[in-house]
């Protein structure tokens, strides 16, 4: 007997009306192996999905409160909304309280699940070196790239970057031309704001120590930090790259990469189809699979493999360390 025929064959005397949302919910529950629908002896065969469906249907029709207490924690938000409509119709305050609590927990769980799936997807894309390559990230945020990385690159650095990425000169030139136009508009606005603030300070003798407003979330290269402003602009108003140390250059690059990672995790990459990741359950089992592989690896009796593991751990680069801190 299939699940579709269970409702019709439930009893000969009682005909349960069809309900698509209810049936989808029961099928959803029947597919979950972690749910115990019925206590069984060890020698009894496992319940089929059709049998699970029928048990759930019987309980749903006979006692919705008990059904909710038994299966409610496994329901997703749309299914809880469906239950809320039933509660509103029956005016059951006890079920209303339970559903409100389950909906809150479901929303929190969903948010955590989405974040974890995006994180796992990001790890895969970082390893593949495509979406999070330097050139691709530059294409997604060329102005920030120029502020934190591009303006400090030498001609040799740029040539090496484009050659390693097999990037056409035309694409880079178009991006850089766009950056220069953005920089010109930004510089004009910044200078106007500076002049306005200076005039306000000169005219306001009563509050001589009042500092100009600035953002507490300023990133490297933004006008909010006066020290960076002095390094980034000449007295003539033309933006130029001040020579910085390799350590500073490294920090700026890490700032750019971190910002691009956070942009992806926060769902801000406009051209990325997040629903393909957010709804993909295959990302949920990646960590468990990795743990299984690690157990097999460390249980190996091969001294050579163990030595390689030690070497890999000691040569861990900063990107791997950063990814662990994100986790």
Automatic annotation (TrEMBL):
Cited InterPro entries: CCD97-like_C, Ccdc97-like
Stretches assigned to coiled coil: none
Pfam families (alphabetical): CCD97-like_C
Domain of life: Eukaryota
Domain CCD97-like C-terminal: 116-301
N-terminal signal peptide: none
Protein name, per record: CCD97-like C-terminal domain-containing protein
UniProt organism field: Phyllotreta striolata (Striped flea beetle)
């Amino acid at each position: 007997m299939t699940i579709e025929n269970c409702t019709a064959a439930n009893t000969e005397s009682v005909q349960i009306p069809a309900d698509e949302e209810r049936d989808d919910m029961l099928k959803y529950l029947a597919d979950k192996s972690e749910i115990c629908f019925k206590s069984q002896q060890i020698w009894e065969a496992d319940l089929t999905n059709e049998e699970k469906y029928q048990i759930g249907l019987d309980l749903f029709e006979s006692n919705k409160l008990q059904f909710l207490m038994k299966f409610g924690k496994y329901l997703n938000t749309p299914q809880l909304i469906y239950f809320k409509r039933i509660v509103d119709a029956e005016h059951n305050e006890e079920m209303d309280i339970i559903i409100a609590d389950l909906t809150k927990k479901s929303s929190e769980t969903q948010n955590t699940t989405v974040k974890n799936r995006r994180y796992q997807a990001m790890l895969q894309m970082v390893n593949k070196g495509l979406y999070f390559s330097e050139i691709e990230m530059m294409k997604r945020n060329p102005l920030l790239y120029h502020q934190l990385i591009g303006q400090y690159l030498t001609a040799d650095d740029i040539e090496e970057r484009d050659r390693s990425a097999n990037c056409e000169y035309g694409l880079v030139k178009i991006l850089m031309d766009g950056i220069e136009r953005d920089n010109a508009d930004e510089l004009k606005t910044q200078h106007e704001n500076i002049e306005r603030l200076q005039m306000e300070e000169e005219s306001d003798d009563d509050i001589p120590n009042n500092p100009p407003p600035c953002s507490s979330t300023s990133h490297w290269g933004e006008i909010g930090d006066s020290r960076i402003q002095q390094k980034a602009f000449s007295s003539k108003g033309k933006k130029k790259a001040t020579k910085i140390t390799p350590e500073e250059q490294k920090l700026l690059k890490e700032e750019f990469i971190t910002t691009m990672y956070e942009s992806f995790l926060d769902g801000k990459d406009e051209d990325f189809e997040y629903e393909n990741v957010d709804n993909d359950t295959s990302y949920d089992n990646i960590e468990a699979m990795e743990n299984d592989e690690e157990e097999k690896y460390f249980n190996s009796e091969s001294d050579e493999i163990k030595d390689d593991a030690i070497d890999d751990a000691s040569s861990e680069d900063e990107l791997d360390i950063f990814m662990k801190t994100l986790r």
